[in-house]
Design brief:
Layout: E1 4-9, H1 15-29, E2 32-37, H2 51-81, E3 86-90, H3 95-103, E4 108-112, H4 127-135, E5 139-142, E6 154-158, H5 163-171, H6 173-177, E7 181-188, H7 201-210, E8 217-222, H8 228-238, E9 243-247, H9 253-259, H10 262-269, E10 274-277
Parallel strand pairs: 1-2, 1-4, 2-3, 4-5, 6-7, 6-9, 7-8, 9-10
Antiparallel strand pairs: 5-10
Helix pairs in contact: 3-4, 8-10
Length: about 280
């Protein structure tokens, strides 16, 4: 079971939904919850040597401290009401660096999909991507829209036999053991790739059952002309999955960007919570 779960705290309106998901998971796993406060620093153009600029910066810092206190208190009060042990951590680094730093002492990190409409959220270019690449822990991303009262009952695992997919399987084990239904999705680009060397699906079934997980159903999809991201989301909808588990950035981040990789595609159009492992 997960014993320590971290959740990103900021001033955005999605913070409450993130906290509710984190509390539900922490309660289910009897875990301690760590709220990682990571918000934006004051704009650099406010810095200066003049007395006016110094006073402006001081006022901004005071207002930010008050807002931070309100966010942290709301989080701790929600945790106390749910009877979940909780603490708060923060640092002066960028939001992604702060989440990655303090999240490394947790089993799972929870963040939200980027939402340009959420103007009070932590503003940083590629916040989710940077947290994924640097945390060294699985990261669960909550979509910016939709309600998810249950997460982890019907799970879809994306499997391509890679190191990242194997890591995702191991990282998600506590969730998979509690699932009522599991689907393993494999993808190919047509007949030419179907003879590629891969471990037998029966070996995956043996692994699942040996670890107390439900025996999974196997779903194979052809991605030719569709794309990896759309294939994953379509399969999740077809099988009513409430959680997708997948590896992230199997190729270099530059290659993923240049080729329109699955991770970037999924992060833009995700429809259910996704647990990524890198």
């Amino acid at each position: 079971m997960y014993r320590r779960i971290s959740v990103h705290l900021d001033h955005g309106f999605d913070c409450k939904r993130r906290t509710e998901l984190a509390l539900a998971l922490a309660k289910r796993h009897k875990a301690e919850l760590v709220g990682i406060y990571a918000s934006s620093a004051p704009p650099q153009y406010y810095y200066g040597e003049s007395v006016l600029m110094s006073r402006t910066l001081s006022v901004m810092k005071d207002l930010q401290a008050q807002s931070r206190g309100a966010v942290q208190n709301a989080f701790l009060e929600a945790a106390a009401a749910a009877d979940v042990p909780a603490i708060v951590r923060a640092s002066e680094s960028s939001p992604s660096a702060t989440v990655a730093l303090h999240g490394r002492a947790s089993d799972l990190i929870i963040v939200s999909q980027q939402n340009r409409e959420d103007v009070e959220a932590a503003h940083e270019n590629e916040f989710v991507e940077q947290a994924l690449l640097s945390a060294g822990r699985p990261v669960m991303v909550l979509p910016s829209s939709g309600q998810f009262p249950v997460v982890g009952d019907r799970v879809m695992l994306c499997w391509d036999g890679s190191r990242e997919a194997a890591r995702a399987l191991a990282d998600a084990a506590p969730l998979l053991r509690a699932a009522s239904h599991l689907v393993v999705l494999t993808m190919d680009e047509g007949a030419a790739t179907r003879n590629a060397e891969a471990i037998p699906f029966e070996d995956l079934v043996t692994y699942f059952v040996a670890h107390g997980m439900p025996a999974p159903d196997h779903v194979r999809r052809d991605i030719k002309g569709v794309g990896v991201g759309s294939t994953i989301l379509n399969a999740a909808a077809d099988h009513s999955a409430d959680l997708i588990v997948m590896g992230a950035y199997g190729h270099s981040k530059f290659r993923e960007w240049a080729m329109g990789g699955a991770t970037a595609s999924i992060l833009k159009s995700m429809t259910v919570p996704i647990m990524f492992s890198h």
